[in-house]
Amino acid sequence: MIIVLKPNAEKEKILLLKNALEENYKVTVNTWVGVESTVLGLIGDTTHIDEDWVYAQDVVENVKRVQEPYKKANRKFHPDNTVIELPTGQKIGDGSLCIMAGPCSVETEEQINYVAQRVKEAGATFLRGGAFKPRTSPYSFQGLKSEGLDLLKGARKVTGLPIVTEIMRVSHIDMFESVDIIQVGARNMQNFELLKELGKIDKPILLKRGLSSTIEEWLMSAEYIMAGGNNKVILCERGIRTYETATRNTLDLSAVPVIKKKSHLPVIVDPSHATGKSSLVEQMSLAAVAAGADGLMIEVHNDPKHALSDGAQSLTPEQFDIVAKKVFALKKAYDEIMRNEE
Amino acid sequence: MIIVLKPNAEKEKILLLKNALEENYKVTVNTWVGVESTVLGLIGDTTHIDEDWVYAQDVVENVKRVQEPYKKANRKFHPDNTVIELPTGQKIGDGSLCIMAGPCSVETEEQINYVAQRVKEAGATFLRGGAFKPRTSPYSFQGLKSEGLDLLKGARKVTGLPIVTEIMRVSHIDMFESVDIIQVGARNMQNFELLKELGKIDKPILLKRGLSSTIEEWLMSAEYIMAGGNNKVILCERGIRTYETATRNTLDLSAVPVIKKKSHLPVIVDPSHATGKSSLVEQMSLAAVAAGADGLMIEVHNDPKHALSDGAQSLTPEQFDIVAKKVFALKKAYDEIMRNEE
Amino acid sequence: MIIVLKPNAEKEKILLLKNALEENYKVTVNTWVGVESTVLGLIGDTTHIDEDWVYAQDVVENVKRVQEPYKKANRKFHPDNTVIELPTGQKIGDGSLCIMAGPCSVETEEQINYVAQRVKEAGATFLRGGAFKPRTSPYSFQGLKSEGLDLLKGARKVTGLPIVTEIMRVSHIDMFESVDIIQVGARNMQNFELLKELGKIDKPILLKRGLSSTIEEWLMSAEYIMAGGNNKVILCERGIRTYETATRNTLDLSAVPVIKKKSHLPVIVDPSHATGKSSLVEQMSLAAVAAGADGLMIEVHNDPKHALSDGAQSLTPEQFDIVAKKVFALKKAYDEIMRNEE
Amino acid sequence: MIIVLKPNAEKEKILLLKNALEENYKVTVNTWVGVESTVLGLIGDTTHIDEDWVYAQDVVENVKRVQEPYKKANRKFHPDNTVIELPTGQKIGDGSLCIMAGPCSVETEEQINYVAQRVKEAGATFLRGGAFKPRTSPYSFQGLKSEGLDLLKGARKVTGLPIVTEIMRVSHIDMFESVDIIQVGARNMQNFELLKELGKIDKPILLKRGLSSTIEEWLMSAEYIMAGGNNKVILCERGIRTYETATRNTLDLSAVPVIKKKSHLPVIVDPSHATGKSSLVEQMSLAAVAAGADGLMIEVHNDPKHALSDGAQSLTPEQFDIVAKKVFALKKAYDEIMRNEE
Question: In angstroms, what CA-CA distances link D40 with B154, D35, D50?
């Protein structure tokens, strides 16, 4: 951490600050005195230093963090890719492409079983489906709740596909015991109380990026889970909020290579929520693969026009067949191209 | 709701959609057939209609909501201003200016009592202070928690100021029983499970705007609380996330008159979090008053440079004295100017 | 265009509006009277109708455009892809992948000839290079200007690569006579006077997307050029401004398939300016190809660390060799995958 | 400027960089060697140093500017407020409140003379009106052009109000000879060629903030004009582009006190373009005054519903009378409150 002091900072105050930093945070402070201003350089673990506290000091003009504020999620301290393996054998982050597909909301047994069967046949490796739904309006369908979870488990039994579904409340953690991957939605990315509790369990967490979260904040939320002891975090880019209205959100695919450099965690992409339009899903799925994503999360509904939520962005099983075929073909080509390099 | 159909929509499918709308949502559908396209006009309560569902229909090109999706928060159905009165007599939304002041975090008994005393003397009508703190980093100070709540209650006893403090978890609602106003922070504005539970209690809720929430989404979150039966919602503008970095967030003061037109709920402004800089608080407090805000939330710390969080944006009690004096003087002038008009 | 009138709009005023629309804009107006409100549906060419004018009418509550405001750039009226062919034979938009590569700024004859030679060998089909440079600071290097143009022409002579370079001023159009493709930079995307003049010449124009321009505004700027008679417009996505700071801008790759649906114009992608980091260029180039882009614009500098501008995002010729190889390999696989579908 | 080097930067390369900086930019470089990394501190005028160049150096990890990149616009080197005085006596930036009012577009002699007369009576000190109009669509009304300029001059003759109008093209500068204040619109804020030419004349320039420009970029554009020798720059905040759609743009009033700290230039506010809604103009005008603005720019039209552009945001002369009265009353109160402090 580099601290730039104000031009006329008094020597005594500088000394007080230096001592406070060394005592409170156990770092070594080097002082560089320039003609116009003095700069402090901190050596040691500055992760615990509160930038706000530093900024509030009289003599401080500016603070620059050199070290990233996340540790467990940081590739620097964990150079190898994290590979998340499920008890049933599926792996995420090992170089393969996982595809999580299914309806936005679980609606009926028939629906979820049918969709699960179809996406499995097309090559999906996980079944996604919402039982508890975060909806902007209190008057919109809020999901089948625990009944939805049961239907998901039923579809898992039928198809063998592990299930991914969203949690919205700390008190539901027990109910999600037999869910294979627990999803934290974009709106809860900074629901720190939920993150803390998910850090205490031993189950993969799919952490969606918040609508207006920076990549650093996103990694800090992963850090919340990991700080509690659960290292099984999968990141999911799902579009950020910008001024553009042609798509529901703006899919930030550059986040994929950025994350790959900064962190060892796997990162997947959700083109359905990002674009909000089924007609854009194929092209953005292909782009996500070429950007280096570890997987895709795609909405598939047997009958999008009767879907109880997010129908406009769902693919039919027939459309998903085609997308999956292309995606796997591109992944194969991509892997060959990347392998040739080595 | 106006539904624009695709140019070549088949008559049978249009009829099916019309019937589905009338049966599922109990609305009357008028059909207007143009040369190029057909438009459906829905009459009745369209609040419950899922736009996603409509968009997913084959024949639909576009949907335009004429009615706002919120009802209880809507000024149309509740023309008079909501005035929130505390058992201790304080009112919010009655034309007076409430000032909620205090430290970002409660730290010690001495600190909170001293600040409470000072802000009371300067004219603050509420004591604010964080006991549970949402922090981006798991390694930052997370608040004194229940101990902090006790210290706030102690300061209330000493000064008589009602207390405002943030809740972060459903299971804490009981613990917040004797808090006067419960705050929902920006990051939890769409923590719908929390909103639902707060809708079941009878206590004013201060709902901060999410970092990237539209005004409509914000009102929909108020609607969540009100749909549960709790109409005591106070809105708080605290800056939105934009590309500008000169301030921590961009304070959207136009939200104040926009809210005043759309809703009957009181709206206050937090210039401290919005700007992130104590040197901008005075000017933006004055601007908020002139924009028509019902109140201000201002961070005051006895010793900002030793504050455990958000020190850079806190005023000292001395600075707050001056700001409060100016703010009240401007409010007086503003009221006279507005009264003369009538 | 659908115009929703206010609930209590008077019949006389509605009639006046209807007549005004029919007379001023030669459209047919259908009236649909509902219980709560009246809706006007306009049939005919509404491209010339000023939305502002409509909104300003007393009785108008809301306006919804059904027709896009652009005509010449609209795929609806020009279903086939526009293919731009240069006198020297190169084509853009014909399904092939064009690569425009070269330094941000032209610096010396040696430099530009060397880079041109290297990028040609690697497969680039155009040489890009800045002679006039838009710089945020008046104190930064502003380009070699006309001397830079001469050096570009020299490099074209040596390599046979057509040249692409940015214009910043109407009075320079004559000077750009022998440039092969004239680039309009992001900051000038809405310099309408420049666009109008470029509409009068017969030369391909590369129109970069403005930092905060919607896709519709971008197409409207293309429309400005085309309205003047010049249909040779190439669109270039180069990142939009968002709150994220990990990349210089946020590359909006979903703009590629969106444009492909809305317009017949070719669209290319500039990952160098979008990300601002050379380490992200390879991955985002691959993603752009998979998103369906017609080409790439990539910065290559013989010696990025001595580049007079934008060095941080430039590739060395050696790095570009590798990127180009991978990009062409992926494009080949992509084409096969897409062809199989048919 | 502080340059943080990479952890393993080689000594020789560091020396090379140090020498290059000292030779090319005539600054003194201090080296501070830490355990993990080395930091260079530059002393002297770093305004001319290209950050891109620094970032492109192999050994550089990060760069932090301590000094602002603008000099002439910087309050540090010019502590007193700039007061712009017109030959006709009007002053901007002297503590008074200037009001520039008039129609978006000049339409007829009758219209402009009538509006000019009315706004003068209400207290406006300048007449604004567009002769050349930047419009998103090539099919929208583009202004009366030189005829509009003549009408403005006529209205000036009748009322004595100095005129403010927008320029869109370098070649028009001569035509704007007798305009009192030349406006540069938001879309041209980074039309550097235009800024450079406006730097060569001796006339006040009203520089509107770009839709997605940071405050620093805005001041750099002012610097372009000032670097040419013209110090008469007036800044105008007119809303920035965000995700919010309830208002046309988001008025960033905190920019006013931020500018006041960073620069000595006067800053005014345009609530009409910022909000896009006439119903919000009064409240945001009052807020702008309380935020410390030196003036307001307000759209007034004799007949907003027949205005050829931007009718929805224009006030009628009657509405403007009321707004102006309140605004002057609040300004008076504001000045007294601020004076008492001293």
Answer: 51, 14, 16
- Neighbours of D, requiring at least 3 CB pairs below 8 Å, are A, B, C
| SS3 label, residue C219 | helix
**Beta carbons of C245 and A214 less than 8 Å apart:** yes
D83: closest CA of chain B, how far (Å): 21
pLDDT tens string for chain D (342 positions)? Answer: 888 888 778 888 888 889 888 888 888 887 777 666 688 878 777 877 878 778 878 788 888 777 788 999 999 889 999 999 999 999 999 999 999 999 999 999 999 999 999 999 999 999 999 999 999 999 888 999 999 999 999 999 999 999 999 999 999 999 999 999 999 999 999 999 999 999 999 999 999 999 999 999 999 999 999 999 999 999 999 999 999 999 999 999 999 999 999 999 999 999 999 999 999 999 999 999 999 999 999 999 988 777 666 667 899 999 999 999 999 999 999 999 999 765
Q: How many alpha carbons lie under 13 Å from residue C279 in its C-beta half-sphere? A: 13
Residue B245 phi, psi dihedral angles, 5° rounding: -115, 0
The pLDDT value recorded for residue C3 is 87
Query: How far apart (Å, rounded) are the C-alpha atoms in residues C4 and D320?
Result: 28
What is the distance between the alpha carbons of residues C119 and C101, in angstroms, rounded to a whole number? 6
Are residues D69 and C139, on separate chains, in Cβ contact within 8 Å? yes
Q: Does residue C259 belong to the interface with chain A, where contact is any CB pair within 8 Å?
A: no
Using CB atoms, which residue from C243, C246, C292 is nearest to A283?
C292
**Residues C2 and C40 sit within 8 Å (Cβ to Cβ):** yes
Predicted local confidence at residue B309, as pLDDT: 67
Q: How far apart are the CA of B156 and the nearest CA of chain A, in angstroms? A: 27
Q: What is the DSSP letter of B74?
A: B
Q: Which CATH architecture describes the domain B2-64?
A: 2-Layer Sandwich (3.30)
* Preferred mutation among D193, D197, D209 to probe C, highest tally of C CBs within 10 A: D193
Amino acid C31: pLDDT? 79
Q: What is the pLDDT of residues C265-286, one digit of tens each?
A: 999 999 999 999 999 999 999 9
The ranges of chain C annotated as CATH 3.30.70.1140 are 2-64
In chain B the beta strands, taken as DSSP E runs, fall at: 2-5, 28-33, 38-43, 60-64, 84-85, 91-92, 98-102, 126-128, 163-167, 181-184, 205-208, 233-237, 267-269, 295-299
Of C28, C30, C34, the CB nearest to B30: C34
Could you say which architecture CATH assigns to the domain B75-341? Alpha-Beta Barrel (3.20)
Nearest CB to B64: which of C2, C35, C41? C2
Within an 8 Å CB–CB cutoff, is residue D77 touching chain C? no
D35 CB neighbours in chain A (<8 A) are 28, 43
- The first and second tokens of residue D299, run together, are 């759209």
- CB pair distance less than 8 Å for A258 and C240: no
CA distances from C339 to A281, A322, B289, C95, C334 (A): 18, 13, 63, 11, 8
Q: Where in chain D is the domain with CATH 3.20.20.70?
A: 75-341
Which residue from C minimizes the CA distance to D167? C193
Distance CA D230, CA D203 (A): 7
Residues of A in Cβ contact (< 8 Å) with D64: 2, 4, 62, 64
Asked if B235 is an interface residue toward chain D (Cβ–Cβ < 8 A), one would say: no
Q: Is C188 on the interface with D (CB under 8 A)?
A: yes
